[in-house]
Amino acid sequence: MNWKKALKMGICGAATFALIAGGGITEAAAPAQQLPCYKTVTEVFDWGPSVSKLIVNLGTKINAKEVDKDTFKVYVRRVLPDGALTIAEATKIQNTIVTLGSEARDDSDLQGYREITNAYVSDADGNPVRNGNFVTIEMKVSPTDNLGAALNFDLKTFYNSFVKSEYTITQNKKLGNFKNLVIDNFKGDIRPTVDNFKFGNYKLGAAFGGSLGRGVSYALYEPAQDGNKHPLIVWLHGGGEGGNSSPALPIMGNKATALAEDNIQKYFGGAYVLAPQCPTVWMEGADAFADGKPLYEEVLISLINEMVAANPNIDTSRIYLGGDSNGGYMTLCLVRDYPGYFAAAFPVCEGLADSLITDSDLKNLSQTPLWFVAAKTDTTLPPDKYSVPTVQRLRNIGAEVYFTYFDDVHDTSGKYFKEDGAAYEYPGHWSWIYVYNDEVSTDINGKNIKLMEWLASQVRK
Question: What is the pLDDT of residues 140-164, one digit of tens each?
Fold first, then answer.
């Protein structure tokens, strides 16, 4: 199978902002005294990251009554990374390839006015106050709004990349003593939850990897250090988050940041979250794409062992593994090749074809409790060739396996709709959305149990 053609099978994520260096933000070099200025706020949504707010530092106090959503106009210019497809090039292949909806195909995807939904006087963190030096501007975001998107999906490389979003904020009505105010002095980006992660690189030594010396970058979340042992959740990204542009991609390309948020962390009493980034794709094989012999398997297990060694309060009896699409493929490969190493695993829209799983492999898989997730409308990795037969075979040999099989993937927030008023529907491959939103559950011994609740209860025997 052609590598680039096959890569679309493992794509996940959709499409903020820029100047990413080692997972962090390089702030503008303008002197601190240059006011007014602004910061962007990049949040991660079901479809991926978007710039949702601007926090403007006016340098002088303003009363809350002086600001409303019509006080400013906001214009953005999205600058694609060097080497990205041009608009003309992307348009030519519009109907020949898979789409994530985040690829720029028209000038309107790259520049224009953002829709302002609210504006108010705030503190430096965006909290409303009666009087303050800052104004927070909230902007409309949605799965179909490319102007706010932080990523661009490149139809040439099949990777997501961060874009540089340059904002110009223009005074639109009376505001204190300001007249004709124009603000374009960028002073950095705030990324809720993302900024709680650390970023690094790991390389497998030549003694293990030969001349290849394979390496991966990673994002790591550490729970509060309270003297107790804490579990480790290893999350493996989809194909769109591969490459080497930023180790923040594995947690921002889609909403893997949710694994570090309170509503999921509460199940575990605080858990480490490790999200490695593959330089290519986890499905890259020794002989062919997705051949069941992944090239990056050894470096992954070595990285996990290194993390455990470096963090002695990781509970080695509670190491959990999950991944979506291309990452779900690697999840099953690791469970197959390291039977009993993980306390439990949760492959999502996984890509290890059932035809590649031998009876011997099946016995190895059965040594780890598994919970599969997929959707019937998945046309990228059709479950009838992947999850469905594998789950049935595991059940036939008495393995502990659960399977949540959704009819489709649609918005459950009540915020986004199709033209006919029905809930907005995402591509069927995106069943990871339900995982991040803690909406995966099944009946176990007469009780409805959520995936994360079940996961936290698993202990390696």
Answer: 999 999 999 999 888 788 899 999 9
**Side chain identity at residue 264, one-letter code:** I
Q: How many CB atoms lie within 10 A of CB 241?
A: 34
- The residues, ordered by sequence, that sit 6+ positions from 145 with a Cβ below 8 Å of its Cβ are 50
Based on its alpha-carbon atoms, the radius of gyration of the chain, rounded to whole angstroms, reads 23
* DSSP 8-state class, residue 81: P
Contact 332, 365 (CB under 8 A): yes
Residue written as token pair 């393995």: 399
User: Count of H helices and E strands in the chain?
Assistant: 11, 25
The whole-angstrom separation of Cα 129 and Cα 64 is: 7
**Taken in order 167, 173, 176, 178, is the CA torsion positive or negative?**
positive
Give the Cα separation of 257 and 266 in Å (integer). 14
The 3-class secondary structure across 423-442, one letter per residue, is ECEECCCCCHHHHHCCCCEE
User: Using one digit for the tens of pLDDT, what is the confidence trace for 310-343?
Assistant: 999 999 999 999 999 999 999 999 999 999 999 9
Which residues neighbour 133 within 8 Å (Cβ) at sequence distance 6 or greater? 57, 58, 59, 60, 61, 62, 124
* Cα dihedral across residues 306, 312, 316, 320: positive or negative: negative
DSSP reduced 3-state for 306: helix
Residue 360 makes CB contacts below 8 A (sequence gap 6+) with none
Q: How far apart are CA 276 and CA 271, in angstroms?
A: 16
Q: Strand, helix or coil at 46?
A: coil
- What average pLDDT does the chain have? 89
Mean pLDDT of 100-118: 79
Q: What is the DSSP letter of 36?
A: S
What is the residue type of 370?
Answer: L
| Mean pLDDT along residues 203-230 | 78
